[in-house]
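Researcher: We're teaching a course module on how sequence relates to structure. For the next exercise, students receive a sequence and then see the predicted structure as C-alpha cells, so they can try to spot secondary structure elements on their own. Here is the exercise chain.
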Amino acid sequence: YIQLLFEAGARTDVFDDQGFGALHWACAEGNIGAVLFCVNTAKIPLDSLGYKNRTPFLTAASKGQLEIMK
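Model: And here is the predicted structure for the students to work with:
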C-alpha cells in the first residue's frame, strides 16, 4: 500500500498519532520490501525521528525486527 499511496502523491513526511511515519511502521512490522521502497524510492531519511525521538531502525530493534537491521 505504501507504493500506491506514494504514487498517488501522499506525503512521506507525516507521522500518525503514535509518532510513527511510513518508514517507522515498515521497520516495526519487519516489512523489508516496504523499508526498501521507503528508503530507495520515497527517499525517507533514515534518521527521521518519531515517537520518543526514535529513528526507524531503533524502532525495528525495539520490536525485535533484527532482519531489518541487516
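Model: If you want an answer key for the exercise: The mean pLDDT is 92. The CA atoms of residues 34 and 40 lie 10 Å apart.
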